[in-house]
Design goal:
Layout: E1 7-9, H1 14-23, E2 27-30, H2 36-41, E3 49-52, E4 62-65, E5 68-72, H3 77-82, H4 84-87, H5 92-98, H6 104-109, H7 112-117, H8 125-131, E6 135-140, E7 143-148, H9 149-152, E8 153-155, E9 158-159, E10 166-173, E11 179-186, E12 197-205, E13 211-219, E14 226-227, H10 229-235, H11 242-254, H12 266-286
Parallel strand pairs: 1-3, 2-3
Antiparallel strand pairs: 4-5, 5-10, 6-7, 6-10, 8-9, 11-12, 12-13, 13-14
Helix pairs in contact: 5-8, 10-11, 11-12
């Protein structure tokens, strides 16, 4: 099917993009196009104007700024998964999760911004950002805003973005020493398929090997990717023993209320969270030296 829209613009600056959005009421941002183009062709999305932000240089930048990693929203997932600045660093979980998104062809086009602005409950990079305490950097007509990723996601396809705002980058603080992360995507056909369940865990240990910080993120089990904060609180101050891991996995499974859909039943998702949680806690802790 042919895409139907009347106007197409390709701005070269964030300010120009914002002005185009303001001057064109029925407009839609497109970057990699792996979601928007498909919906346009299927006539699931109707829009008058496309604003293509793929030519804005600052959206494709990636850098270490002090103790933070800053990734432009337009940075493609294939490059992100292979960038040594990320994959060979304390931020490697971001690169790992980027490498789990769909196929090679999709990762070559899809962007970190798009994967999260779409606000799909099963997005693979979102759990990585959640367990990394990422900040979403937004620019709009009223200036700049910095939104914690956990507050940015509101529901399926819904974010905290206000009218004519653009996500320009993600700021990810450097994890403390003795702090590591692990992620598991469970899907029938591997990475090319949509996640049935995604489980991300970050663990930080004190010198006596008690847990000083914990982050647990669950994908595809709720209307949005979520933090399992009760599990995080339970883990603090404990050691990574079989008994603690077992209890944490049970808490994670019992604390969710997933739906049954064409990919899996609710009961299956709860069981997979239980199984994956046990492995991810141990895997994250095992990386700590």
């Amino acid at each position: 099917m042919k895409m139907k829209f009347n106007k197409y613009f390709r701005p070269t600056s964030v300010q120009e993009a914002i002005e185009l959005l303001q001057n064109n009421e029925d407009s839609k941002i497109v970057a990699g196009g792996t979601d928007v183009v498909i919906r346009l062709r299927a006539h699931m999305l109707k829009v008058d104007t496309l604003v293509d932000i793929s030519a804005i240089p600052e959206l494709k930048e990636i850098k270490v700024d002090g103790d933070n990693l800053v990734i432009g929203a337009g940075y493609d997932l294939m490059s992100l998964s292979k960038n040594p600045l990320v994959k060979d660093s304390k931020w490697e979980i971001i690169a790992e999760c980027a490498g789990h998104v769909s196929s090679t062809q999709v990762r070559n086009r899809a962007t970190l911004g798009g994967n999260n602005v779409n606000a799909s409950p099963s997005a693979d990079t979102t759990p990585a950002l959640l367990i990394s305490d990422a900040i979403v950097n937004v620019v709009g007509p009223n200036g700049k805003r910095d939104i914690p990723i956990d507050e940015f996601l509101l529901g399926p396809g819904k974010t905290a973005l206000e009218k004519n705002e653009i996500v320009v980058s993600f700021t990810i603080p450097k994890p403390d020493d003795r702090c590591e992360a692990a992620y598991h995507k469970h899907a029938i056909r591997g990475d090319t398929d949509i996640a049935i369940v995604g489980v991300g865990v970050r663990i930080g240990l004190n010198d006596d090997d008690t847990i000083k910080m914990a982050r647990v993120a669950l994908g595809a089990v709720a209307p949005r990717s979520i933090r399992a904060k009760e599990v995080e609180e339970f883990l603090i101050g404990k050691k990574v023993t079989d008994e603690v891991v077992e209890e944490a996995a049970k808490m994670a499974s019992e604390g969710i209320h997933p739906i049954t859909d064409q990919r899996a039943t609710a009961e299956y998702r709860k069981e997979m969270v239980y199984v994956a949680m046990k492995h991810m806690i141990k895997d994250a802790a095992a990386k700590i030296k």
